Structure formats: C-alpha cells, structure tokens
Amino acid sequence: MIPEFDVDIRRDYDLQTLLTGLSAEEVARGFTDHHEYECLGLPSWEEAAVCLTEEAALLERAGRSEEPDGMEAILDELHDADDVGYAELMAYTFRWNDIGVAGLSLALSAARVATFYSCSSGLNKRHHAKYPMVGAVPDPERAGLLTRLIEENGCGIDQVYGRWYIYGRSVKDLQVLGSAVLVARDAFDALPQPSWAEGLAELLEELADE
Fold it and tell me: Are 153 and 173 in contact (CB under 8 A)?
C-alpha cells in the first residue's frame, strides 16, 4: 500500500510576490534552511527520466505490498539485501531525495526551477512533512506553465515568503506531476534560462572541493 494523506488541495500563490532574483551562490548554498537539503545542480532531462522510471517501478512494487507503508517496507528490504547497492541507488539515481518526490525534484531542476526541499512523508516519524511535498521557486516565465501542470495533475501549491511548496495527497500524485514536467520539456527549454543557472555548475564544483 502507498499511504494517502487527508490534505485539502489548494493553489494559493501570488506571482507578484514570488521570490525572484536568486543568484547562483544562493541556489548552490541554499537560500533557506531546510533540513540540510542539497542543491541538485543542473541535471539533464535524461537524468530526470531515469529517476522517474526507477521511481515508478518502486512505487508499483510498494502499491502491491500489504504493508501500510509499502514504500518504507520496500526500502528496508532493499537495504537489508544489499546495503551498498541501496546506497548507490539512493545517491546516483535519487540524489538522496525520498523516493516518491525525487522524480519531481529532478524534473523541476531539469526544467531550471530552483528546488530547496523535498519530503515524501510517511507513517513513521522518520519524515518531517505531514504530507508529500517539494519546495521550489520558479521564475515568472516558468510559473505559468508549472501552475497549469500542477492543476491538471491534481496537486496543490502553498506559497510562503515567495517560495512554493508543491504537494499532493500521495507520492503517486507527485510522481505523475514529475512525469508531466518531463513531457513538457520542450516548453520549458523554450524559455530563457534563469539567471542563477549561469555559473552554478562551476560553483557547485568549488563547494564540493572545500
């Protein structure tokens, strides 16, 4: 089973007060303190597609599980069977994001939407969010396209201090949204690159060497 959470889906946002003007350094170092979230950099659409495909397969397995939180059960099983393989999967495919929100996080980053938080939530106390969500800040050009995809796929937006928390009742909803972002790749690529994207890769390399 995959848990579903009792949350009212709303789209509360104001493009006039959307956080803008982020720099590469702010995106790289983190422009808000959120549970040690690490910048995903500038992943390719192909990397996002691999993540979404692997994620969908694991969610399908979790859905067939008889455990109340099938995803946690599957992850425990993977870790116990091969802890090294588990670590490599989490590091290289999911970038240490929770499965169920990793695909959306990678897809948004490939669309050049700055992400700053993600949590799949769950039935245990290992997660800090009450329901699945991804924190993101689109520029005004991307915001219009993204809000349409969010609405079409039954997800919500909560804007706080100019930042968006994109959420759903289940990780399945956010996984479907991530796939919709991937499908819209050409539309996102047609938009001008956000200013923070320039120099971000080099800055992340410098930070990794510190």
Answer: yes
- Could you identify the residue written with the tokens 């890769």? 201
- Using DSSP bridges, classify how beta strands 156-160 and 133-137 pair: parallel, antiparallel or unpaired: unpaired
The per-residue pLDDT for range 55-109, each reduced to its tens digit, is: 999 999 999 988 878 788 888 888 999 999 989 999 999 999 999 999 999 999 9
Residue 173 to residue 137: CA distance in whole angstroms:
19
**Distance from C-alpha of 210 to C-alpha of 206, rounded to nearest angstrom:** 7
For the chain, list the strands marked E by DSSP: 11-12, 114-119, 133-137, 156-160, 163-167
At residue 197, what is the residue type? A
Rounded to an integer, what distance in angstroms lies between the CA atom of residue 106 and that of residue 178?
8
Q: Please give the DSSP secondary-structure letter assigned to residue 31.
A: S
What angle do helix axes 171-183 and 45-64 make, rounded to 10 degrees? 150
DSSP H stretches of helix in 115-199 = 140-152, 171-183, 185-189
Q: Residues near 80 by Cβ (< 8 Å), separated by ≥ 6?
A: none
Nearest CA-CA partner of 117 in 32, 209, 193: 32
Give the pLDDT confidence of 116-155 residue by residue, as tens digits: 999 998 766 666 789 999 999 999 999 999 999 999 999 9
Long-range contacts of 199-206 (CB under 8 A, 24+ apart): 199/24, 200/24, 200/27, 200/28, 200/39, 200/41, 200/42, 201/41, 201/42, 203/24, 203/25, 203/28, 204/28, 204/39, 204/41
